[in-house]
Amino acid sequence: MAALSFVHHYQAASTPESPTLLLLHGTGGNEQDLLPLAAELVPGAGVLSPRGKVLENGMPRFFRRLSEGVFDLEDLRFRTTELANFIGEAAAQYGFDASRIVAVGFSNGANIAGSLVLLQPRVLQGAVLFRAMVPIVPDPLPALPRTHVLVSNGRADPLVSEAETGRLVGLLKDAGAEVTLAWQDAGHHLVQEDLARAREWLGSKFTKGERR
After folding, report:
1. Is 60 helix (H, G, I), strand (E, B) or coil?
2. Is 10 helix (H, G, I), strand (E, B) or coil?
3. Order of all β-strands in the sheet with 20-24
4. For residues 112 and 62, is the Cβ–Cβ distance under 8 A?
5. Residue 69's pLDDT band (boundaries 50, 70, 90)?
6. Catalytic residue numbers, as ranges
7. Per DSSP, what are the bridge partners of residue 60?
8. Which domains, from first to last, does the chain contain?
9. How open is the CA angle 74-57-155, to the nearest 5 degrees?
10. Residue 201 near residue 207, CB atoms below 8 Å
11. Cis ω on the peptide bond leading into residue 138 (within 30° of 0)?
12. SS3 for 185?
């Protein structure tokens, strides 16, 4: 569907206590890529899955970068606001609870999710960040005392170092977020352990009526 500002897929939650998962794909993906994960991570969850608008050599992304690991921060700010506005529009159109949105992002999608947490702190109740790095360092930092974040990164990731992961976790904690770090024996690709840890974490935080 493309009636709103992003081409996207939407699926309503099957139970009123379930969150809506905001699925954010990696570079070269689209709105279909992470759909198989949704039912595995949170059975019955709602799904809002947009396609990134920026093209890099024909591959969709959520924001521009200047080179590998070097982000266009002006574009990142603009795209983060644009995505936040889309989420609000979608909640109004589809009638889901805007206070029960949890992002699940991979790589570029994890980075825009992290930017949402830091720049638009009222949009997400929480986020699962697979293979994420520091997207931006706001000044001043937001206050995130009730925001839950899972960072699941690979120890052998050639793109995201352990030091960069530590910087991200430290930044989120400095802003007051409740952060869980899960290390995987993997590179930049997802493995079953990522999904098992995320499923357990999401179940403990968001499927028992917990609200901000």
Report:
1. strand
2. strand
3. 8-11, 46-50, 20-24, 101-106, 126-130, 148-154, 178-184
4. yes
5. confident
6. 107, 157, 188
7. 55
8. 8-206 (3.40.50.1820)
9. 75
10. no
11. no
12. coil
Q: Which H or E run contains 117?
A: helix 108-119
| pLDDT one-digit tens code per residue, 86-140 | 999 999 999 999 999 999 999 999 999 999 999 999 999 999 999 999 999 999 9
What is the residue whose two structure tokens read 């990164």? 153
pLDDT the model gives residue 211 = 42
In 3-state terms, what secondary structure has residue 9?
strand
pLDDT interval class at 74 (50, 70, 90): very high
Is a pLDDT exceeding 80 seen at residue 208? no
Apex CA 58: angle with CA 53 and CA 161, to 5°? 80
Specify the residue for token string 């179940």: 203
Is the pLDDT at 207 greater than 90, yes or no? Answer: no
